[in-house]
Amino acid sequence: MPQYNFFLGNHPALSTAEIKAVFSAEDVNYEITGKKGKNLFVSTDKKINSLKIMDKLGGTIKIARAVDKKKDTVSDIVDFLQNTQSEGKIQFSLSGADQKDALKIKKILKETGRNVRYVEIKNTASIIHNNLVEKQGDLSMIDGLIFVTEAVQPIEELSRRDFGRPGSDSLSGMLPPKLARIMINLADAPFASKILDAFCGSGTILTEAIAMGYKNIFGSDLSERAIEDTETNIQWYLQEKNLNDIKYKLFLSDAANLDNVIEKNSIQAIISEPYMGKPLHGNEGKIYILKQTEELAQLYINSFKTLHKILRQDGSIIFIIPTFKIKNELVKIDCIDEIKKIGFNVEPLSEESPFLRYGREGQHLARDVWKFVKK
Ligand SMILES: C[S@@+](CC[C@H](N)C(=O)[O-])C[C@H]1O[C@@H](n2cnc3c(N)ncnc32)[C@H](O)[C@@H]1O
């Protein structure tokens, strides 16, 4: 059975939930065989198309397949490189192993008359620039097994959509495109179905959805500026990629009034990072934060009442609910029970927790990702 290592980003639990969702969408039969730090080990019943899977994922940095173990590390790598790079200069990198092994491998290969270059890898960009995925030359040793990298995250493409796009509203803040992708995957909606971001801001989720292959896009926001930014960013992406089969509609609307403009029972998935309150400086008192959480709870509950109407039966909502940090205390928004009463079930995103947190040390706010399914 082929064995893989998924090298995950900074939020391994979210990345793991995303991988499970993508495997289910791609009908991959798999078993998670282990976890170690940011490494997720998976065995599958047949080889997977790592490039295609990577093309969908937001939370995985690298996908690597285990090489058959025959003799010892050095001889196995020498045999592997001779077979995979049978002509021209051999180029390889080796992480997780004793550097002496890399030099031994280089020496043995040179003695067979081959031209060899050992590449020191600093980050995924250097794997891409040295064409090591195509050459099957990026090797790593993990838990005594040799892995060959089959796909790496297209980090430069993601950054281009992050920083290169024309319209970005610094007031509403921006969701990292990788997290947008993870959220879209968790929704598990077919590419032809209608998807909506009801708080679209500058359109990060919608642009990412188009980049992933979604063709029927709806977006809305209360702010005129946000709708203009979203329009500019979507147009920029469609022109960059020369896409002309994407249908998208944007509405200037309060999320709680969307049933006036969007047909009932029509949307398959809603993926949103809503308004999360006024930017925090860290010196706000508890009373201020509690007042803000009450207002946000009301905003989310009112929005969910309407979103329930426009969502199809069994449709889902992937929604960020912020948790605030004051000093060492976490303040959550109390809205889950009310959302359930409206007619939603919470679909837990992991065995350990119903939601998964995305946040960095030192931030005043963490983003909790939840999945709700219409009953
Ligand atoms: C955190 S931002 C979303 C950012 C977006 N994910 C992005 O990456 O660009 C929240 C957005 O919610 C909008 N908003 C606030 N209250 C709203 C409401 N009641 N209905 C719809 N949109 C609202 C704001 O105008 C803002 O653009």
CATH A-level architecture of the largest domain: 3-Layer(aba) Sandwich
**What is the tally of beta strands?**
17
**What is the overall silhouette?**
elongated
Rg: 23 Å
Count of discrete structural domains: 3
Helix content: 25-40%
CATH-defined superfamily of the largest domain: Vaccinia Virus protein VP39
CATH class of the largest domain: Alpha Beta
The main sheet comes to:
9 strands, mixed
What amount of the residues lies in strands? 25-35%
Q: What oligomeric arrangement do these chains adopt? A: single chain
- Indicate the low-confidence ranges by residue numbers: none
Distance N to C terminus: 38 Å
H and E string: EHEEHEHEHEHEEHHEHEHEEHEEHEEE
Bound molecules: S-adenosylmethionine
Number of helices: 11
Reported by name, the CATH topology of the largest domain is Rossmann fold
Average the pLDDT over all residues and give the rounded result.
Answer: 94
Estimated structural class: alpha/beta
